[in-house]
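Why do we care about 3D structure at all? Because function follows from shape, and shape follows, mostly, from sequence. That is the central idea of this module. The next example makes it concrete: a single protein chain, its amino acid sequence, and then its structure expressed as C-alpha cells.
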Amino acid sequence: MFLTDPLILRTMLGLGVNGLPVDPATDFTDLIGDRDQRQWLRGAIQPITVRSIAGLLIAYLGEETLSEVGAAFQLASKGDRNSDDRKKAVLQVKQCQLDELDQFLDAPFYSLSPVAPRDQMISDLARIQAEWRERHNLPTTRSREPELKNYLRAWDLREGWENGEYRRGAIRLLKDVADTLGKNKSTTNNWYRSAFHLITGHDFSSANWQELMSAMHLTGLIEESVNPISVDRLKRAPSPRPVDDTTISEGRNRSGGGLVEGLAVSGSLFDPEQCITEILRLIDEGQTDDQIIDEIGLGEQVSKGIAFLRENRELDSKPLASK
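And the structure:
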C-alpha cells in the first residue's frame, strides 16, 4: 500500500526522494539487518557506501576526467578482480595525466588509520572539524538525542502517525497536541518544528507543509466536502497533450475545422489544491472559518482542515525558539 499510494509517492518526490522509499512501518530490526550497526546511528563518523562514492565522482568530476575514468571502468568490467584487464584499468587511472584526479574533494573525506594512537586520532579530528567550521562558517551544535523522542511524539500527534501509517484527516492542532503531551504550546511548537526539519530536511513553513503533506491530509477531505455548485470555480484545465509535426500537418489539411478545434479538450478537472490556495487567501484576508465555508461552498466537516491551515499560517510568524 505504502509503496504504491500515489499521494505518498508524490509527497516523497517533494522531499527529493527519487528511489523507492522505505515503508515507515518497517520494523527497526529489519532496517539494520543482521549486523549490529546501531553505533552509526548516533556517531559523528559515518561509513560511506560504494554507491555514494560512485555518485560523488559522477557529481564532482569534469567531462574530460569522467570520460577517462569511465573508459578505465569499462576496461575493468571485462574481467574479474584478478584479471589483467582490472590491473590495466588501475594502471590507466594512475598514469592518467589529468590534474583533477590529484585534487582533494571539497568535502570532509579522509583516510583514518585504525592503528594510530587514540590521543592523536582525537586531536587530528578536532583540528579537522575546527578547520571545516571556520572555512564554511558552520555553527557549533550539541547533541539533541535525548529530545528526539519528544520531537517525534509531537510530530506523530500533529500529523496523525499511528501504528505504522499516517491516518488521513487525523491532523491535530498544536494546542491539542500540547494538552496531550502536558506541555505548553511554545515547547510543543519547538518540538514539532524540530521534527519537521529532522524528517523532511526543510524548515517548517505553511508553504512547505502544503507542498509535502497537504496531498495526504486535506485533498480527500476537501473533495468530500465541497459543494457541487462551487466545483466550477475550483477547476483547472487539463494539461495539453504534446503534438507532433504529423498531427499539425494533418490538422492543416483537414477540412471542416481548424487545428485549434481539433486539439481542444473539453471539460476540466476539480483541483483540491486550488481550493486550499483559495482557503489560504481568505485566511490572509481575515475571514472566519464560517465565512470561508460559506464563501467557497464547503461542508462543515472541512472546518478542521481550515483551522489547521490557519494555525500553519500563524506558525509562520513564530520561528523555532533558540535554546
